[in-house]
Amino acid sequence: MGQSTATRWEILDAAHAALRTAVAGVAGPDWDRATPCEHWTTAQVLQHAAGDQIGFAAAITGGPGPDEDPFAPSGTLTTDPAEIADRAMRASAAAFATVARNADAVPTPVPPHSLPADLAVGACALDAAVHAWDIAVATGQTSPLSPELARALMPTARVIVDPVRAWGAYATALPEAEGDDDVAALLRYLGRDPHWTA
């Protein structure tokens, strides 16, 4: 699989690395497995994640959006999964490479559709990282979502997630549990059970 363009945004590079690792670890038959995203297979989660990355790129560049609705993925992979993921991540990485760190109004597909640079890139990274976790746990891989990355993503999650829960983008937050690390805390905030199994 190819490598994403350097972004100058470490959080996005780390999230892309997590998604790249998860996708690379999926065997062919495992693209039909159930995932923590209810009613979606691993193939559908990949299509959704790729579509979201392209959506972030399109918001910044004004270029074309995803080929299909990321919220109604077909689950049919007609292209190599690694290439699907890599093409999408290259697009978002290249777009964010043009964004100044102090920009106060970066266009995004996430309401309110314009965010300060750190939140905009955090939203894009959050999407890639959490879907990397979805794909990894659905296919029996070690989680590529590190405590360091989860800790860095939590401030963005606390700003952007609640306003979009009603649309089904994220489930209701789960109660915190004693002994949760940063990964578990982030996953529970996003409505995911950190101990989910297929």
Automatic annotation (TrEMBL):
* Occurrences of domain Mycothiol-dependent maleylpyruvate isomerase metal-binding (ranges): 12-136
Q: This protein's superkingdom?
A: Bacteria
What Gene Ontology molecular function terms does this protein carry?
A: metal ion binding
Entries under InterPro entries matching the protein = CHP03086, DinB/YfiT-like, Maleyloyr_isom, MDMPI_metal-binding
Give the matching SUPFAM superfamilies.
DinB/YfiT-like putative metalloenzymes
The record's section on NCBIfam families has: maleylpyruvate isomerase family mycothiol-dependent enzyme (TIGR03083), TIGR03086 family metal-binding protein (TIGR03086)
Its name, as the record gives it, is: Mycothiol-dependent maleylpyruvate isomerase metal-binding domain-containing protein
- Organism equals Planobispora siamensis
